[in-house]
Amino acid sequence: xxxxLKSINxxxxxxxxxxxxxxxxxxxxxxxxxxxxxxxxWKAYQLNTEYISGSIxxxxxxxxxxxxxxxxxxxxxxxxxxxxxxxQTAKAFTLAEASKDTQIRALAKFGLGNLYFDLALSAANVExxxxxxxxxxxIELAREAYKGALRLKPDLSQAKFNLELLxxxxxxxxxxxxxxxTDGVTLQPFKRNGTAMMRDNKxxxxx
Length: 207
Description:
Layout: H1 2-53, H2 66-77, H3 83-96, H4 102-123, H5 132-152, H6 157-169, H7 171-175, E1 190-192, E2 195-197
Antiparallel strand pairs: 1-2
């Protein structure tokens, strides 16, 4: 009985002795977590403020800040683009593609698809100095970007719609038609009066 009481007293003594240290460590840990959360909130607030004001596009790209890179790319994509801005937009979206966040990666690929789609439409205007070959090349890049976005985020409806629209507008689909009798994948020419034309494929679902 005496030995048991001594053990209890020793435990109480040790607990009382180390309790201040435990409390101090706990307080330091909680303060560190609170400081980190405050920092994260401040960074998010700063990013939103710079995005809304448009000043974010003037900032340097950081390969390790993927959300920041995507924000710059998205803001640039909403502006009229010079050759330099196009290159900067593509670079920013490409950096965002390296994110570990699936959502950011999918949206970055979708943004690249839209960028290449716009370039394809511009290149298709031969009268304005465009080139058929350039248009086809941009279409292929846009198609791969949209497919990449859908692999990461299959429910990204905008990418599905744009991919189908791209198929309808692409030059190769203007000279080769989707036959409604086929499986919806195989391309066969449909000619009327000796000219290759396109039939609507009802399975595509576009208006």
